[in-house]
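Example complex used in Figure S2.
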Amino acid sequence: MKNEGVLSMPDAVRPSEERSTRTERRKARTRASLVRAGQQLIAQGRTSVAILEITQLADVGMGSFYNHFESKEELFDAAVDDALERHGALMDELTADLDDAAEAFAQSFRLTGRLHRAYPELSKVLISTGARLVTSKRGLTPRALRDIARGVETGRFTMVDPEIALVLAGGSALALGQLLHDHPERDDAKTTDETTEALLRTFGLAAEEAAEICSRPLPEVTVSLDGSAA
Amino acid sequence: MKNEGVLSMPDAVRPSEERSTRTERRKARTRASLVRAGQQLIAQGRTSVAILEITQLADVGMGSFYNHFESKEELFDAAVDDALERHGALMDELTADLDDAAEAFAQSFRLTGRLHRAYPELSKVLISTGARLVTSKRGLTPRALRDIARGVETGRFTMVDPEIALVLAGGSALALGQLLHDHPERDDAKTTDETTEALLRTFGLAAEEAAEICSRPLPEVTVSLDGSAA
DNA sequence: ACCAGTCCTGATGTTTTCGTCACTGAATGC
DNA sequence: GCATTCAGTGACGAAAACATCAGGACTGGT
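Predicted assembly (460 residues):
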């Protein structure tokens, strides 16, 4: 009888129903602090810390942890989920007005590449998801799959199997992030755009068109782990 | 004053010096049991178990753990390393006689794809490495990089940046494994070969040639986690 | 046959972590 | 106002995990 199915969109105020009492907001804030702390720890690769340390990092009382999660695993799952979903929603927002599936895909991929450098903490949380990113039903994956499928439908992509395309794209996005982290000297924009270009060609676009799409300007974006976006 | 710098090549007998006393072999066996247990646990995703449980799974005494490793992390690192190195060496062996870099790359990739189904435990250990696979200096990665570089040198691959090629290939290999695990109904050979084909095309091969290379027969292979290979 | 060296072993004391629970204070609704 | 509800809190007893160490087993050399 504590919290029911409110896990889906934890942090931000539910847009539809404005009914948010002060108590609910405080609860959400406490939860968000914990999720945030979980993300920091994941980014640092320190996922086997004591619960006490988590709550201290989140600056909440020890007991509060169990008001929201039953185990560390549950918290870390929620933390990854939150990051994935937030990133996915952001990409959605930034590519909503693009009619061309190829361009929508390219923009998302390129923006994600930039993000590895611009927001390393968020990026590391995404990377920590590992390969199961590509079979996840949440966050980025369904959106990428949708873009790819739309590209196939509209004849932009001539490659047949959307899931193989997703494997190529998702795996590359992951690996690209790792590469950029481990080689800070690399030009992230250039590397990302070249990778995107290669993917577009693989999906069936002509070389020149792929290059052209990847040279288009990108929207400015500001995100942070705590959810603000502009 | 226990063991000095003998960590580098733990398991197998040092090839150069044949001096392997019975005591050394016993030690190696104990260590191998622990590594093996570590791999099983990684494959099951249970990496936060008590050390006691690890030694029980390995069927060695509790104290033996500390004869070989200082922490769980060290064991798991060694376990991943072992799997990576073993896999890499196997691929090397099976593609040693191939002159064409494109074919060597394709064979390795296709064999790796088959392996995800044929040896799910080994595969899961590899996948657990995550994206840092592509920047690792051990195991598969340096070999793949070598094949790709050779392909570029010999003019088989016209794509310029070997590291971007590696990102595409490594990320895809990872994601492909995950896909095959999560969708048991998929034809692993077909899916793998299509992916390989797409990669070859991306690297600059003509479509027909890529298809032809990926339809060639593969060598039989038998591996197991404990190291036997035929 | 004996000795020295090395690894194996599990019982043990110590330390860490867990998860509960009774209490607190704020907020809500009557 | 006043009572009730609910999330927050941290101290505490219980449980688990740690890492050591003294003794045992096996080896290899003398």
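Residues 201 and 207 of chain A are 6 Å apart (CA to CA). Residues 72-95 of chain A form the longest helix (24 residues).
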